[in-house]
User: Fold these one by one.
Assistant:
Number 1:
Amino acid sequence: MAEFKYKRVLLKLSGEALTNEQGFGIDPLVIASIAAQIAELQGLGAEMAIVVGGGNIFRGLSASAKGMDRATGDYIGMLATVMNSLALQDALEKENVYTRVQSAISMHEIAESYIRRRAIRHMEKGRVVIFAGGTGNPYFSTDTAAALRALEIGAEVIIKATKVDGVYDKDPMRFPDAVKFSRLTYLDVLSRDLQVMDATATSLCKDNNLPIIVFSLFERGNIKKVLEGQEIGTIVSGGDR
């Protein structure tokens, strides 16, 4: 069993992380690569839960801006996260990782309902738990769902896998002079409006001193490096800078 700094973690994946260059839908090759990295960690004794977004399929906020009722748009977005969760479950089980999907919206035929104690027990038995359906409520993002579920299951850290290798002062895909931060406080994130997680999720982490680590998903082995305590990406915490 490997020596991990963080044994129980919540991995936050954006829906876009599951796509190819087109930025829409689910790319089986990408999702298989993610599953292989997670399988390696499970074999080494990590306890992992996952929250995945739905932006690769539907964005409730964008639909609301174009005239759709906000609550309706958010519910459609929650259903998109269920689709992504089932696809990720399938990829993980192909890697021989026992996986359970727990949905905040009841769909008994395809997923368990979210039950905190059952989720913890699954993790103790070496299963990956994927939390689908956001919080089950409109007006809350999957970032907030990730922070909430991480606290409920006693995760030691939220690790947020993105397309870039950390948090920058501006979009590094558009601005070559963007500056990367190695460490930030929660107040830095909130006061500078840095797009780490939304303000509700960041405040929830701040109030409960739950660290967030943002790193690149697309460099193989990065998830393992984070669990081992290697300082990659950007660490958001309330401690010393």
Number 2:
Amino acid sequence: MPGKNIRPLGGKPLIVWSIEHALSVSRIDRVIVSTDSEDIAKVAELHGAVVPFMRPAELAGDLSPEWFAWRHALNYLKISEGALPEAMVSIPATAPLRNPIDIDNCLDEYEKGEVDVVITVTEAHRSPYFNMVKTNSDGTVGLVIPPTSTISRRQDSPTVYDMATVAYVVRPEFVFTSESIFQGRVRAVQVPLQRAIDIDTLHDFQIAEYLLSHANQY
């Protein structure tokens, strides 16, 4: 979806939802938007965020790892200010239906200590032990994780979760010493499914519009 981050949703550009969520969390000192788009930068600054640098094009493609964008932003702060923040909170523009309390809950979990990253998750509706399959080398399919005993109902399989993009809280030093989230100590905060939609396609956008218009029913 070209221009997705500034496409109007519920009367405001998509990215503005995330900026407003961040600004409403008292423990967040400032809201920085990392982008390679002048149009996005203008919208972000108009709504209270700061854009002290432009993201390099090689870190802004559809296939560019978000991890490298985090590292680029933190490196800018380290060079320009001589220090890293106590924590970095990533609040993706593509999850506009989060509630600021979800961010606060992630910060609460991070402040317990002994953690590198806090992620958000939702209850999974499919299980690799029961109804998620992979293709075998002979062309047949089988369960992603075959259970050691027969499982006749999904409810009887081990509890699993889907990762969400509602918020991440990251120890800045960890971003420089590792290459991915699960190389470190990770904890999770569960969020309701209706607040965890991640907008990648027009279909996702339409679902978000519907959920937003019926928010009082959840």
